[in-house]
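Re: beginner question about structure tokens

> Can someone show what the tokenized structure looks like for a real chain? I only ever see the sequence side.

Sure, here's an example I had lying around. Input first:
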Amino acid sequence: MARKEYSFYPGCTSERRSSASNYMVSVESMCKKLDIKLNEIPDWNCCTASIGYAEGGELPRHVLNARNLAISEQANKGQDVVATCAACWLGAKETKERLMHNSDLLAETNEALREAGMNLQYKGEQEIRHMVEVLIEDLGYEELKKPMVRSLEGIKFAGYVGCQTNRPFGIAGESFENPKYLDKLVETVGGEALDKYDQKVTCCGGALAFSEPEKSQAQIKNIIESAYDHGADMIVTPCPVCQMNVEIYQGQINKRYGTKFNIPVTYYSQLMTVAYGGSAKDAGLDGQVIRATKLEEIAAKPVKK
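And the corresponding structure tokens:
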């Protein structure tokens, strides 16, 4: 029996060949080392992030999230729901907050589920959490350090938290303006956290990357430029949208602004997987657009017995 078990909502971006599939690879490797079992919610659907706000109405958005959560209540009783994607976590958590504080909306949501022929009723029985909440609040930094067999010493990380894992809910006890948990995770595995990095909670622009790229790329430029100014070797984040936007648009930003950005953008779980003895493949580093060569070099080193 695993040390910890959770009801797991993977989200669309973690699917095979999707933009954050390498994130899922590293999360699975990390959880295996930490003896965490993720019980996937059966037949889950999209959380409606982004498209759910495109004039589709409030009720359909909450119904789709409530469907996932109601299935979870049946299939994985007594387990907290955990998401790795910031948008999925935020959407599901918002649905629970709205429905548990609005009896009329809850009734309408459950009626919609019945009208769709689903034998489901959402009750709000489970907590909804981000993976970093689980790591920090259920295990703690000292416990996270125990499986470490390699140190990431010599690599400087700019901890880019982004906005969705920080506001409006965030991690227990953390500042909204200057959260420290990502810096602490970096230090736990031996890396150097650049705690003076001043863009850690700046929005990457999210879906504006498609609709208004000039605005999004201006924000991304600031995020990357600050990382360089503070001497970062790479950027680390807990959010798939942040990772995608800050990594893949560097080429376009270079053309627009005449810059020469080429900085890797990684996930906390990739750092931890390498520190726990995993290979570059175990950490999903083969899925990077900009190669994290310093991390790959450490991953290639033999594990100390």
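Each token stands for a local structural state, so reading them left to right follows the chain. The two ends are 26 Å apart (CA to CA).
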